[in-house]
Here is the input.
Amino acid sequence: MADVERLSIELTNRCGKACWFCYNTSRPEGATTWSVAEVVDFVRDCSHHAVKAVSFGGGEPLEYDGLFEVLAALRGVLFRSMTTNGLLLSDDVIRRLVDVGVDKVHVSLHFSGNARELARVIASVGALASAGIRSGVNLLVARSALADARAAAAALHDAGISNERIVYLPMRGQDTPTPREIAEVADGPFQSMTCLAACGPSPRFASIRWDKTVAWCSYTTTRRTLEQPTHAALLAALEGLGLAFCGGTDDGLVRLPRRAQHGHDVVRGRS
Here is the structure.
């Protein structure tokens, strides 16, 4: 097995947004099985075994009570990023993110046709950048709303948020666009997940959910319990683990050149 270099850890499945399509079935009354000490010890142990980056998500990581404690404890240990819906990104929260030195924050844009959400995401990314935090957007693309996604991408570009700072994420489970459709939305060189090119594990990436189950991908239903919060247990859970296809369509798949970006399990492609 190749060395795992990047981890995605969903700290909680609590999220006030409660999007109907959430792959993690996040909800306002969500929970977590991770204590702060477990997260810190697990990531530290993994950092001693080739893991170079961790991305914290959810649910909504800002609804995990120990987020800032975790980020502070892991400062200087490895690259720490997080993905947020942005609803809780107040000036005070951004100051706290500066204080703990988070390496990067991406704000999710789930409803590209919603003008208020688009404006809020642009403002949040701008506020993060003004505070000196590397920032970007995770743009969810649904096949039934390609025109909205194209318009949102153009608005992000007009706001100075280039494709270098946008990750184009296809809807999973249903309403899934093809890679070619994603490329048309991006209208230029773009970033997406490695499985955009073809369903399959990236041997350098692993996802750990709020319930301490492990998978090769954040979206797949093929998961195995992490018996202990250690690197050895992570490798044991991944050994021989399969990967169930999670897309809503597999037509029109094209092979795109792969190149990982530090801190993210992404692929770069061209329209």
About this structure: The chain has a mean pLDDT of 88. Residues 115-130 form the longest helix (16 residues).
